[in-house]
Every structure is written in structure tokens, then in C-alpha cells.
Amino acid sequence: MSVSAEKCYRLIIFDWDGTLMDSERRIVDAIQHAARQAGLPVLDEKTSASIIGLSLTRAIEQLYPEASREQVEAMAAAYSRHFLQESDIPMCPFDGAEALLRDLKAAGARLAIATGKSRRGLDQILPKSGLAPYFDVTRTPVEAASKPDPLMLEQILEETGVPVEQALMVGDTTFDMEMARNAGMDRVAVSFGVHDHAELDAFGPLAHFHHLDELRQWLLPRVCQGKG
């Protein structure tokens, strides 16, 4: 994909886990804990992390295609309980996250979240992160569908009234990139999440960034100025 000098964005949509929030260790720990509780084999860290970004039920089904419905439900319940209430593994926004959001907001961009997290999970964690005031819209699979279905993005576009050609998706997984491609939306990738460059490149991101400060420097000049 290429971007012309005239192209600008009014709406920036972010994935949450692995893009803005450094939560991989806590997610993997909760997945492994939940597998034990449900009587399923504990998978290695890389495999357990590979599904970050999907809705919880879809993630479990992808990791454990042999699991019964009862095991999937038991694992989902154990995961949610451990991740939200029991885990002592810390998580926090990545370095540069707040500066990125603050500067984009000051430049006039509208900001949104499209996450595989549950609504309950996002509503619990987003206020604690200190980043909640920057976002105009948030979407989870509870209101839409799991990535890579584009419904979350389509709902955000409808709510904000921004045309797809003036919106950009930022994410760290192939699920984010494929979702944006399915919506016909431009996309950029960050490389500090769970999927590597080669995997992400298959879905045509405009660029890759190794740090949120690099993304900020690239993105700020591309925010639409004086265009409603």
C-alpha cells in the first residue's frame, strides 16, 4: 500500500492489548491458568500468546479445537476471573502511549478502540490505565463480532460519521490487519506485540513501527487539519 502526500486521517482506531497496553504476560498467565482449571493441556507461551486479539471464546476454540463446549465455557470463566481479579502480574500502557494519544487529540483527531477484550474487561481496565479520556468510541466483540470480522470498525465509522478513507487502524496482530483490510481501511502495524513483521506484511500495512514515539512522528503530520 502507498499513501499520497495529500492523504490525511480524521479517525485513528487502536487495538488495545499489545498495541497500547503491555499486557501479554498477564494474558498468557491467565490462559495457562484457565487451561489447568478446565483440564486442558497447558500450551507454551508463544502458542498461548498467538491468539491475543481474538474474542475469548474464539481464542480458546482456536487453541483447543478438541475442547468440549463445557470445557470452553469453564476455561472462559476461569480466564476472566484470573485476569480481572486474581492475577498479580502487572500491566501498564507502553512507553509513549499517553503522549501519542494526547498529541493526536490536540491535533484534532478522533480516537477509538477496537479490541478483542470483553466489554467487562475493557471497562474495568481502561479507566485504571489513565487513557480513557482520550477515546471517543470503544468497541468489543460483545457489541460486534470477533476480529477479523470488520463489524467493530464499521460500527465505529457509523458512530463517528468518518468515511473509511479518512480512518486508520493501528494494531500488533494479523487479526487487526485482516480486520482493517476486510473493512477497506488503511492500517499500520507495531512490532512489539505478538505477531512478527513477516506475518503482518501479508496484510499490507502502510508501515511498521518499533516504538509508539515513531508512530507519533509519522502520524501527526497525517492528521487532517481544518476538515471537520
Give a written overview of the molecule:
Mean pLDDT is 93; it is low at 1-5. Strands 5-4-1-6-7-8 form a six-stranded parallel β-sheet. The protein has ten helices and eight strands. The protein folds into two domains: 11-23 and 92-222, 3-Layer(aba) Sandwich (Rossmann fold); 24-86, Orthogonal Bundle (DNA polymerase, domain 1), CATH 1.10.150. It is α/β, with parallel strands linked by helices. The chain is 44% helix and 12% strand. The chain is globular and about 55 Å long. Helix 9 links the parallel strand 7 (186-190) and strand 8 (208-209).
Query: What is the CATH superfamily classification of the largest domain?
Result: HAD superfamily/HAD-like
Count of helical stretches:
10
Query: Taking Cα atoms only, what radius of gyration do you get, to the nearest Å?
Result: 17 Å
Number of domains: 2
Could you tell me the number of beta strands?
Answer: 8
Helix content: 40-55%
Shape: globular
Average pLDDT reading: 93
CATH architecture of the largest domain: 3-Layer(aba) Sandwich
Pattern of helices and strands = EEHHHHEHEHEHEHEHEH
Ends apart, CA distance between termini: 26 Å
Question: What structural category arises from helix and sheet content?
Answer: alpha/beta
Would you give the CATH topology of the largest domain? Rossmann fold
Residues in β-strands, percent: 5-15%
Uncertain runs: 1-5
Name of the level-1 CATH class of the largest domain: Alpha Beta
Multimer state: single chain
Spatial sequence of strands, sheet with the most strands:
5-4-1-6-7-8
